[in-house]
Amino acid sequence: MTPSTQQFQATIYKIWMLRYVDVPQEVGRALATEFAAGDKRSKRGKPSAKKRKPTEPKYIPVVAIANGRSTRTTLVSAGGGRYRLQFNVTLRKAARADVGDLVGVELRIDRAPRELPIPPELEAALKSRPRLRKEFDRLPTGGRLQFLRWFSAKSPEVRKKRLIRALEVLSERALLRPQPSSRRPRK
User: Fold this and answer.
1) Minimum mean pLDDT among 71-75, 89-93, 119-123, 183-187: which range?
2) 86 and 143 both lie in a single domain
3) Is it the case that residue 96 has pLDDT exceeding 50?
């Protein structure tokens, strides 16, 4: 199934330093439906404990295009079934627009993985420390992304120093994580 492209025009607004456009409700609904349909196909075969009523996703990964320039970004929920698109510098420069201007935007679902590769030094260190590997895997997607961006440095000396600190951070997280109680509550 090829992703459909949704087009619309919107005004750029500003909240503090953040520029954004409100995605029309019908466009947001169409993208949410398409994204949810793709998610169900990718999770096929996994039994679920109970059937849930369909909910709208909080975040929808998209490719946004303005004047032929594209960027990978995420639609965020604005409440009430509406979504917002952060209008970052790439999109603003491509559209030659800023706050108060009307812009044309194209959106399509972005199914490409957004994971960064784990650097070999970190991979080797985590392989010999299963508890830290488990803690690394528990990091939320955004947290793992930030962690890997911080860790990745050009200089081998800097990566070596950051490896030591990275392992300390993961150890601290593992130690501070509440441990499940082995005792059963009394009835």
Assistant:
1) 183-187
2) no
3) yes
Largest CA distance in the chain: 66
Q: Quote the tokens at residue 126.
A: 């985590």
Please give the Cα distance from 11 to 104 (Å, whole number).
9
Spatial neighbors of 72 by CB under 8 A, at least 6 apart, are: 61, 62, 63, 110, 112, 114
How many Cα atoms within 13 Å fall on the side-chain side of residue 141?
5
Range of the domain at 17: 6-109
What is the per-residue pLDDT across 9-57, written as a single tens digit (0 to 9) for each? 999 999 888 999 999 999 999 999 999 887 654 444 444 445 555 577 8
Last residue of a domain, one of 53, 75, 109: 109
Kindly state the helix (H) or strand (E) to which residue 63 belongs, with its residue range. strand 59-66
Supply 110's token pair. Answer: 């972005």
Lowest mean pLDDT segment, chosen from 3-7, 48-52, 81-85, 117-121? 48-52
Per DSSP, what are the bridge partners of residue 82?
A: 79
With CA atoms as reference, report the closest residue to 28 among 104, 65, 79: 79
- Examine the domain organization and report whether 11 and 71 are in the same domain: yes
Question: What is the b/e burial string over 132-168, where b = at least 16 CB atoms within 10 angstroms of the residue's CB?
Answer: bbebbeeeeeeebeebbeebeeeeeeebeebbeebbe
